[in-house]
Amino acid sequence: MATLTDTPPEVERLWVEIWRQMSPERKWLKLAETFQTAKLLHAAGFRQRHPGASAADIHADWLAVQYGFHAAATMEEPAMEPVAQNVEILREVLGALTKLGIPYALGGSMASSIHGIARYTQDADVTVEPFSGKEAQLVALFGSDYYVSLPAVRQAVRDRSSFNILQTRAGFKIDVFVRKDTPFEEAALARRVQFSLPEQAGPPIDLLTAEDVILFKLHWYRLGNESSSQQWVDVLGVLKVQAGRLDEAHLDRFAAELGVGDLLARARKEAAG
């Protein structure tokens, strides 16, 4: 099915080539920039509607609109964050997982932005190995600036589902998905790769491969009744930027296992066009 676009083919080809040439480090920094831009636009709109709003009022609305989280009246004043604060928050969460010896891989739209074309995302997705017995230890590593529900963590580990870690002062959320007991998810976590940010101190970050990002997103697209245009756009972005670099056999094998072989064929055709 053809999609509407305001970008002529020659401009899109140039745009894709720019992203093909861009380093993962630069894409990572652009993620931070787009998150901060979204917060600035939200603040401008809220202040236009409520001229006397304080910084705390604006921040409380951001938390409510983006995450459905209603801050307590006694919550601290929001931090005046630098552009890359969401990156530092993510590092804190990944550091907590590493401290407890919990293998992880960054996925979702952050991963598709690194492998493909960056876009604004209001959260980060992280897949982890099951960590039964360490739930309370993990929650204890986060201070008062974080909202993490221990019952939700325990349920997610038990059911192999997900839980959230919300940094309330910055208004940034990490969704943690406990790896399901399937050959695909086991292989995806085992195939994770590392990338480093030379501009920033800190250890390398574990990341899902481009192939597994595509497969996860096609799977979620199907589970969502193929209604999420953004998931589809993310898939096309990775296919275009990584053209000629992908393990096509891996894609074919697990697309068939996940029941998304038809979607992969359609995406390949659309990306090539």
Structure description:
- The structure is a single chain.
- By secondary structure, the chain is α+β, with helices and mostly antiparallel strands.
- It has a single domain (9-208), classed as Beta Polymerase, domain 2.
- It has twelve helices and seven strands.
- Strand 4 and strand 5 (172-178) form a beta hairpin.
SSE blueprint:
Layout: H1 9-21, H2 24-49, H3 55-67, H4 85-99, E1 104-107, H5 108-115, E2 123-128, H6 135-140, E3 146-147, H7 150-159, E4 162-167, E5 172-178, H8 183-190, E6 193-195, E7 205-207, H9 210-223, H10 229-241, H11 248-258, H12 261-272
Parallel strand pairs: 2-5
Antiparallel strand pairs: 1-2, 3-4, 4-5, 6-7
Strand order of the largest sheet: 1-2-5-4-3
Can you tell me the CATH class? Alpha Beta
Given helix and strand content, the structural type is alpha+beta
Largest sheet: 5 strands, mixed
Count of DSSP strands:
7
- In N-to-C order, the SSE pattern is HHHHEHEHEHEEHEEHHHH
Tertiary shape: globular
> Helix fraction?
40-55%
**Model regions low in confidence, pLDDT < 50 over at least 5 residues:** 1-7
> C-alpha Rg, in Å?
19 Å
- CATH architecture assignment: 2-Layer Sandwich
Strand content: 5-15%
Q: And the CATH topology? A: Beta Polymerase, domain 2
Average pLDDT score? 83
**How many helical elements?**
12
**Could you give the distance between the termini?**
12 Å
How many domain regions? 1
